[in-house]
Predict the structure.
Amino acid sequence: MNKYDLTFHHMGLALRKEEEALKFLKGLSYSEGKSVYDPEQKVNLRICEANDLPAVELVTAGEEEGPLTPILKRYNELVYHTCYETTDLEKSLETMEQDGLRVVPVSPPKPALLFGGRKVSFYTVMGFGLIEILEP
């Protein structure tokens, strides 16, 4: 296990429309997961998985403004976060900060429908970008 107890889970792809992304992913042998609307995050989510390839979460805007609104005003599509699993959120954050990384909370832990109610939270790691952390 690595120093921060973070294991890669998926990359998050913000999209205005998911049809072309799904066509591309299917061509790479990805399976298309069920789409769910997450009212906590105000987005539509779908996980796509394939053997020996990283999982991709397709994220499209919901009916009301949410975290994707500013991203999708500028881009049609953008890989905007990477997600990691941890067994101990506080310890992971503390270890990163002890290493001198500046970790800025963006969204506190909240249950995620796409992951069966497991909690997710978002942080900007300065010099790296936006990460999502998925708890057990």
